[in-house]
Amino acid sequence: MTAGNEKQIQAVIDNGLLDAIVGALATGNFQCQKEATWALCNLASGGSPQQLGHMINSGALPPLTLMLGSSDQEMIIVILDAFKNILKSEENLGRLLQMVEYLESIGFVNKVEELQSHENQQVYETAVSIIDTYWSGEVI
Question: Global pTM?
């Protein structure tokens, strides 16, 4: 449902489904959390900056961060890519510093630093890229 175009994503937001997705991510069983993760990551990759803002304001990022502790390597990569899209969008809107500080406050940076020693090469490289790009001290 969020893998469509911006108009379809907007319908999800307009009909109040984003809160249900975030709720499933935060409190559902693992299968519900996994499906909610995919839905949010699809939104992060295909949504407009305003739609990403709705996702951020819905409280999706803390439970999405917790999903980085999953043993599903493909899901970890998709989540990291979603956060890269969110960071890029916030940078383009001139709100990178606020997002970086927020992500630090919810434990995202600690999770990504842990992933820098992950056995999967793609997880490792994506984690290193995020830290180098947004937490090297030079960008902000």
Answer: 0.93
Domains of the chain, CATH where assigned: 6-134 (1.25.10.10)
Report yes or no: 80 and 127 within 8 Å, Cβ to Cβ.
yes
pLDDT digits over 90-129, tens only?
999 999 999 999 999 999 999 999 999 999 999 999 999 9
* Residues 8/52, Cβ–Cβ less than 8 Å: no
Let me know the angle formed at the C-alpha of 86 by 66 and 26, rounded to the nearest 5 degrees: 30
Q: What is the pLDDT of residues 49-88, one digit of tens each?
A: 999 999 999 999 999 999 999 999 999 999 999 999 999 9
Indicate the residue type of 101. E
Residue 139, pLDDT score: 46
Note whether 79 and 87 are within 8 A (CB).
Answer: no
Alpha-carbon separation of residue 80 from 6, 17, 132 (angstroms): 21, 23, 14
